[in-house]
Amino acid sequence: MKFRLTIVLIFFHLILYGQNTEEDLLIKEKNYKPVLKTEVPSGGFTMIEREAMYPNGKEGINQHIMDNLQYPKKAYKKGIQGVVSIRYVVQADGTVDEIKVLKSVHPLIDKEAVRVIMAMDKWLPTIQLGKPVKSAFTQNMNFKI
Question: pTM for the full model?
Fold first, then answer.
């Protein structure tokens, strides 16, 4: 009887904890890591179960920026430089939107910073109460000649 009970308990444990979800596979495959946010958008939470995750975390975001940022030619010729600060929201479906320039340098530079944020890979969203929720992030981009 004890043997059967033990087998049944092991079986249920394997069913509950032994299966990988699609999200677990993505985390392993693309090396998603949490990215700590600095603010909570309207409808968000201050205490969460899991932070939003981006492939390779903060390093992945920085790499995305380095790989995709193109200094606008007109801004380069005019010697325009500075740090643009962008706020964006990772939605419950992992997409990025609600992009806003918090600190502007010049319209040409600002437009490029927004373009780079819009081109980000899909995120794994913040999880609260077992459900995905949106979360806000701020990113600075340094345009220097």
Answer: 0.72
